[in-house]
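Deliverable D4.2, example record:
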Amino acid sequence: MSDALMQAVTYHSREMQKFCKERAKYHFVTSLYGSQNYGTAGPASDVDTHTIILPNMAEILLEHAKESGTHHFSDGSQATYKDIHSMFEMYRKSNVNFLETLFTNWYDCNPVFIEDWRQLRAGGELIATYNKYGMFRTLKGYYYEQMNNYVKEHSYKGLANAERLFYLMYYYFIEGSSYAQALQFGENKALMESNRALKYGQSFSNTKEETAYHVELENSMEKLAAKVETLVSPGINSTANDFLNKMEAQLKLKVLSIEMQKSAPK
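Output generated by the structure prediction step:
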């Protein structure tokens, strides 16, 4: 499965490199996100990737570097893409889909920027602490969004996603696990085997059992939220903020250096 995932990520990356070249921009990295990362993917699950695009010199100097959208490939798959500034905004907003790309094993990075990407990945745990209270509020919002999907559409995927978010919050904020460990990424097999909803409801023998589990999870979430509110306070981690500012400036300066070398007289 890991080989197939890497092939899919590489395919997305190669296609996005063409996309960037056509727009006179730079491909930074294409990374896997979603259920494939933490072992909860079902047979019909897609391979989801984020691609980060670096602006050209003119866009950096004019501060016209915003890029965001979905690119569709010829095989029917698709990938989301954002510019580098938006990526750092997503980190600061504790967007779980972007934070997890710092910990995934499946990515394809432009060799020119590989050392920068390695620095970002090495700082993943620090980035996760940028605003822990803000992260909790974001994850809590995601949890209720997924649970609402389950209630309205009777979507087992919604229940599974809600449960995954619950355990992410539990292990990170209550147990003090690293963010990478809390995300699981399929490493904690014992935990995943014990979580019924993570099997998309397959282990529920009847509707009554499923409903009881739904109520149990909602009650657990209410207690978890009350506990976390006493453990974390609003505020920005200045060290994490400085690191993010430094990395964004470093990447933009590298692009400027590359383009200046290209335009220099031979």
